[in-house]
Amino acid sequence: MLRRLLLTSAVSLLALSAAAADEHAAKLVGHVVLPAATFIDVPEDAPADLKVSGKFATSRIRNEVLGSVEGKSRGRPTGLRVPFKGQPLQGHSGIKTMPDGTYWVITDNGFGSKVTSPDSALFLSQYRMHWDKGTVERVTTIFVHDADKKVPFRITHEGTEKRYLTGADLDIEGFQIVGDKIWIGEEFGPYVLRLDMNGKVEALFETMSDGKPVRSPDHYSVVAGNPGVAAPEVNLARSKGFEGFASSKDGRFLYPLFEGPLWDAERRDWEKLDGKTVLRILEFSVADQKWTGRHWKYLLEPGASAIGDFNMIDATTALVIERDDKEGTADKACPEGKKDTTCFDDIAIFKRIVKIEMSDANAGGAVRKIGYIDLMKIQDPDKKARKPLNGGVLTFPFFTIENVDVVDARHIIVGNDNNLPFSSSREPNVADDNEFVLLDVESLLKAK
After folding, report:
1. pLDDT (tens digit per residue) in 49-62
2. How many domains does the chain fold into?
3. Is 87 in contact with 438 (CB distance < 8 Å)?
4. pLDDT digits (tens, 9 = 90+) for 78-103
5. FRET label pair with 41: which of 131, 334, 349, 352, CA 20 to 30 Å apart?
6. Domain that includes residue 157, residue range
């Protein structure tokens, strides 16, 4: 009898696992493209240094000759050159659907690291998508600044009045608008920031998990020691801080999601569960302005290496982008066993939007994966695609896909981060545009 019960339980668990992996169809309803080479000017009172960006994008040595160094994606020239006049509208790393039909989008640190991005301004932009025309209209832009010195460490423009923040100061990767405040999830520290609607920093919060500080090698308190000396205070890898940043539908709680696992000091390994890498979702109380101590575990599937964005559907379910670090499609792949600068040598495979359940019942444990859509096979029966199809479907083969949010009961919006000028995922030697797709995923949104 006991054996029969155990077998029945095992079958039930397998059935639950299979259900969690159910794939749902995604149909293209709209597709807009913001050209890669789209630039904006900084405010008049911004330092002159921010009027030209990318002077350090490819080297620690200053380069002020406009357009003198071509960007490369895994060794492939992308056709766009730095430095740029102005700030590029790139690095889209989080999106929020607004009641008026517009979308707010956050731009991340710029050129990939602290040392490469001191002249990359941090900002958020409000966009209007013209799905019928395939174009994106920028309505307004908010530049992030620290006039009241709420950031506790020295910033790039420390001695200026407005103190505009740059990608050498922070890497802003996700955000939520709650009331009249903008909340931001940051990757370097990692930190959580509160801004007013003009982009002024009002507060910066250190990250805590299990009652302990979470710090990456880029945290302001971390000082490199002598060669071979470990930094015990570091428990998160560089560039693995907050990437996803959701909020409860009532705005009471924020849910920052790490891009990488925390270091398990006792086991001397990155956090894992059932053999899978764990990415923690933390909970922050907006009213109390502090961490609640609760968390959930997001488990990466085999073939995936990171998450890209995270937004709630309702009180207990959410959408997460789960992806690999690959780019490109099979029709433009290099011959097997060969690598060249004119073809893709490691094509995109795992690019998903996953629906999860996170509730009081599974707090502290793994979220339940309800289902997913595959962004490598978006159906296009109504011929809405603004880019060529692959095998009759629209693919989203980008290295980084970092924008997803619910639009209504059957539609979601998804967008890429084009890492300008360092990603060329559609064409081997053409810098990626910023793209957004409107998808009909009613089946996924209704899945239980």
Report:
1. 999 999 999 999 99
2. 1
3. no
4. 999 999 999 999 899 999 999 999 99
5. 131
6. 24-446
